[in-house]
Amino acid sequence: MNKEDYFIKQFDKNSSFIGDDGALVDNIVYSNDAFFEDVHFKKNWFSLKQIARKAMLVNISDAIAMNAVPKYALLTVAIPKEYSKKDIKELSQGFLEVAEEYGIEIIGGDTISNIKLDISVTIISKTNDAKLRSGIKKDDLICYTGDLGTCKKDLEKLLAGKKISKKSKFYEPKLKADFFYEVSKYVNAAMDISDGLFFELERMSKQSKVGFKFFDDISPEIACSGEEYELLFSFSPKNINKIEEIAKKHDVILNIFAKANKGKFRCDCKNHHF
Amino acid sequence: MNKEDYFIKQFDKNSSFIGDDGALVDNIVYSNDAFFEDVHFKKNWFSLKQIARKAMLVNISDAIAMNAVPKYALLTVAIPKEYSKKDIKELSQGFLEVAEEYGIEIIGGDTISNIKLDISVTIISKTNDAKLRSGIKKDDLICYTGDLGTCKKDLEKLLAGKKISKKSKFYEPKLKADFFYEVSKYVNAAMDISDGLFFELERMSKQSKVGFKFFDDISPEIACSGEEYELLFSFSPKNINKIEEIAKKHDVILNIFAKANKGKFRCDCKNHHF
Fold it and tell me: Which residues does the record give as Mg(2+) 5 binding sites (chains A, B) (predicted)?
C-alpha cells in the first residue's frame, strides 16, 4: 500500500463518507482536490490561467460524476513570493472564468505566500440523485466516455521536453456536464477517471463488490492513462438505447467495454504519479 | 496592498460571502485555512501530532467565532516522500483526536506526495445565529478573551532557536467553544484573532463601518501578536453583566478595551508573517 492510501486508511473508522469522488451529506456533495506544482504540473507546461482553470475543472469533474451541480468553491492558494500583480491577476482570472462558466460562486478560502504554486479547491454541489461508486449491479454494462490514452502520451511528451497540442485534454479536461445530468437517471454507479481507467475500476470493484468481464482486451496505454477526466459509469442493459440516444444528442462518444459479474478486479498499472 | 490581499480582492465582485472567518450559506458556515510548512510552522518546532492538531484547531476557531458548531472536515494533506508509516500514523492521529474532541467527522479530501508538509482544512459547521464581523453597533463595547502577546514572544523565541513552554498557545490554541456558544446571544459581532488584535480590528472596522475609542493604550506586543486564536467580539453595554457572569462561569478572562464610535480604524502593526 502506498503512503497516501495508508494515510487515507487511518480515517476509515472515523467516517462512512470516504470512498467516492466527493462526500455526500444531506444532498450536498463536498469534493476536494489538490493541484500542486511539481506534483500535478510543472510551471513551464502551463500558463497561470490554465493552471487555475484545471484546478477548478478537476474538482468540478468529481461533482458532475456524482450527478451534482456545483454551487460554491473555496480556494486555498499558496502563491510564490516572486509572482507579480499581473501574474496574480492572470491566476485569479482562470478561477473566475471557470466559476462563471459553471455558475459557481467563490465564497472563501485562504491565500498565503509560498515557495511554489500549490492550490487546493473545495467544491460544494447539490444533488437530488447522487451517483456513487457502490451502485454497480451484477450484469450492468460498464462504459467510459470519450477517448482514453492521449493524456498519458501527452504527459510523457512533456516530461521528455516535447510540445503537445494546445487542445490536449491534459491542459484542459473536457467535462460532459449536460450529457451526464440528462443520462444520470438511467445510471447505477459513476465516477470520473482521474488516475486511469483500471485504477478507477479497482475502486468501483471494491465499493460495488463486483468484478468485470471485458468484451475486448484493453491496452495499458488506454487502461493506465490518468488525468483524463472522462466519465466511467454503469447501467442496466435495458437502458442501453436511451443512453446511446442521449450520448448522440450531446455528441459524446460511449465505449461500452465490460459487464459486471461476481468477482474482484485488481489494477495492474504502475503508479501514475510523476 | 500585499499580494495575498490583491489576490483576494479579485474575487470581491464574484462573491458577497467573502469578509468573515467563514462563508455563511443557508445556516452552514464553510471555513478554510492553510497550515503550510515554512509558512505557518517549521518542522523542528512541532511534533507531527501537534501540527495536525493545530491545523484542525485554527479552522475550528473560525467556526466557533461565528457561533457555528463544526460537523465535518475535508483535509488536503501533502506529505513529504521521506515520511515513514509511523510518521503518517502520528499525523493522522492528530487529526482524528481533534475530530473526536469536537464531534467532527472527516468526510474526505486529498492526499498527495510533496517536498514538504502542507495542510489545508475545510470545516463545515452549522449555526442558527451566525456572528459576523459586520455586526458592531455604535456604542458597542469591544472585548477579547484571554491573554494576548505570548504567541508573538514565543514565535520570536522559536525563530531565535530558543525553547518555549510546552503549554504555549503557539503549540495549541485554547479555544473557548462552550463559553462562546453560551454568550453568543448577547453578542453583536465576532471573529477570532489569528493575525493580531489590530489586524482584526481593521477588518471589523471595515465590515461594520465603525471606529474604536480605546480605554487605554495597547502596546504593540499585545496589539500585533498573531496566532493567538482568542475571541474578539462586541456587545451592547446593557449586556455587560450577563456576559461577565458567563465568562466567570467558564473561567474565561474578558478584556473590555474599547467602545465603537463613528470613524475608521487602521492597523499600524508590521506584517505578521515570518
Answer: 195
- Partner A contacted by B38 (CB < 8 A): yes
Q: pLDDT in tens for each of the 274 residues of chain B?
A: 788 888 888 887 666 667 788 999 989 999 999 999 999 999 999 999 999 999 999 999 999 999 999 999 999 999 999 999 999 999 999 999 999 999 999 999 899 999 999 999 999 999 999 999 999 999 999 999 999 999 999 999 999 999 999 999 999 999 999 999 999 999 999 999 999 999 999 999 999 999 999 999 999 999 999 999 999 999 999 999 999 999 999 999 999 999 999 999 999 887 655 5
Q: Which residues of A touch B105 (CB under 8 A)?
A: 14-15, 17
Distances A140 to A21, A208, A213, A237 between C-alpha atoms, Å: 20, 11, 11, 6
In angstroms, what separates the C-alpha of B71 from chain A's closest C-alpha? 11
For residue B58, give the CATH number of its domain.
Answer: 3.30.1330.10
The interface predicted TM-score of the complex, written ipTM, equals 0.90
Report in angstroms the alpha-carbon separations of A234 from A5, A133, A207, B241.
25, 9, 13, 63
Do B58 and B162 belong together in one domain? no
Q: What is the CATH number of the domain that holds B206?
A: 3.90.650.10
**Closest residue in B to A80 (Cα–Cα):** B3
Mutate to test the interface with A, among B5, B10, B11, B25 (most CBs of A within 10 A): B11
Residues 121-140 of B with CB under 8 A from A: 122, 124
Q: Where does chain A have alpha helices with state H?
A: 3-9, 48-65, 85-101, 150-159, 177-183, 197-208, 220-223, 240-249
Establish, for the pair of chains A and B, how many residue pairs have beta carbons separated by less than 8 Å: 181
Please name the amino acid found at residue A33: D
Total domains in chain B come to: 2
Residues A117 and A151 in one domain: no
Closest-CA distance of chain A to residue B106, Å: 6
Contacts of B220 (CB under 8 A, 6+ apart): B269
Q: Is the residue at B151 inside a domain?
A: yes
**Structural domain harbouring B176:** 133-261
Residue in chain A closest to B79 (alpha carbons) equals A4
Residues A177 and A88 in one domain: no
B63 and B42, same domain (yes or no): yes
